[in-house]
Design a protein that fits this description.
The chain is of the alpha+beta class and about 100 residues long. The chain has one domain. A three-stranded antiparallel β-sheet has the order 1-2-3, with helices on one face. The chain has a two-stranded antiparallel sheet with strand order 4-5. It is elongated, with a radius of gyration of 16 Å.
Length: about 100
């Protein structure tokens, strides 16, 4: 059996795991839970650290009309609705992949 965590693509509709069993059958499992409403490191995508996001630090940005002195982290990585990968979902997905590949 082989499991792979699929990349985040566009608008978030769940964290996906691709699984191929020993007979070659393919499956896709989707996880989606908001957890503590904090984005995963993949969701942050290098824009800031989770600590910067939690503290809503001002991030340097060039030529933004609304934020000429930098943008607050929670504006840069907005999670106003449920379309984001939570830290808990990402952690669980990694653990599922690890166990299936063990």
């Amino acid at each position: 059996m082989k499991a792979t965590l699929m990349p985040l693509n566009g608008k978030y509709y769940g964290t996906k795991i691709a699984i191929t069993d020993d007979a070659g059958n393919e499956y896709e499992v989707e996880l989606w839970n908001m957890g503590k409403w904090e984005p995963s490191d993949r969701e942050l995508d290098g824009a800031c650290s989770i600590d910067e996001w939690r503290e809503n630090k001002i991030l340097p940005i060039v030529d933004h009309p609304w934020y000429p002195n930098g943008i607050p982290a929670k504006e840069a990585v907005e999670i106003c609705d449920s379309h984001f990968e939570s830290r808990e979902t990402y952690t669980l997905a990694l653990e599922i992949v690890r166990r299936l590949n063990a």
